[in-house]
Specification:
This protein is about 60% helix and about 0% strand. The protein has about 190 residues and is mainly alpha-helical. It has one domain. Bound molecules: iron/sulfur cluster. The site of iron/sulfur cluster has 14 residues, from helix 2, helix 6, helix 7, helix 10 and helix 11. It comes from Apolygus lucorum. This is DNA primase large subunit C-terminal domain-containing protein.
């Protein structure tokens, strides 16, 4: 496959290397629970679409996860509509764009929901767990935790980017998870 092409097979590697924390958390729960609730599915489907994942590959990706727990026929009946909808082949046939940080920041996840911006919605314990999973050194938690506590989620995300990539985010602020991804790929593929 051509360099940089996103398929359902390399999402996990790209996630480890380059996804922002809001998407890493959705992937973590999808892998763990073989399920994601509606809002999380929608946020993640649109992000992956923005990476260039085709509709066919998107269905294959979600199917592989969900059918670890449910029958394929149930998946096809209950869960493919939202994917086709996000790709604009159902409902209003609108070609929905991946959500920006300001859209995602409006999300308020309920029980067993993982959408939204983690730098806004995670409690201190979960935030530290997420930083640990991302390989960030404990001594570097403080600036991120300060920004989280001061209600500066996009600033915290920028500090996080700097720590996981070993160099600073090249723009003044993080406004979109798909731009975060693009900037990460430029560093990783150098
Ligand atoms: Fe995602 Fe934006 Fe929050 Fe970063 S600031 S975790 S890219 S929503």
């Amino acid at each position: 496959s051509k360099k940089g092409q996103v398929t359902e097979k390399n999402i996990h590697q790209l996630c480890d290397e380059s996804f922002p924390l809001c998407m890493k958390i959705l992937q973590l729960h999808l892998s763990r629970d073989h399920h994601l609730r509606n809002e999380g599915r929608y946020q993640y489907t649109l992000f992956l679409k923005g990476l260039g994942l085709s509709l066919t590959n998107s269905v294959a990706f979600w199917k592989a996860h969900f059918t670890k727990k449910i029958e394929e026929s149930v998946f096809m009946k209950k869960y493919t509509y939202h994917i086709r909808h996000a790709y604009g082949t159902e409902g209003k046939m609108a070609d929905y764009r991946p959500k920006s940080c300001s859209d995602i920041l409006k999300g308020i996840p309920g029980p067993l929901e993982y959408h939204g911006c983690p730098f806004k919605v995670l409690d201190t314990i979960r935030m530290k767990e997420a930083l640990h999973r991302s390989g960030i050194d404990r001594k570097d938690y403080a600036p991120i935790m300060d920004q989280v506590q001061n209600g500066l989620p996009q600033e915290a995300c920028k500090t996080y980017f700097g720590l996981v990539h070993g160099e600073n985010y090249p723009h003044s602020s993080i406004e979109h998870p798909n731009v975060y991804y693009d900037e990460s790929r430029k560093i990783r593929l150098r």
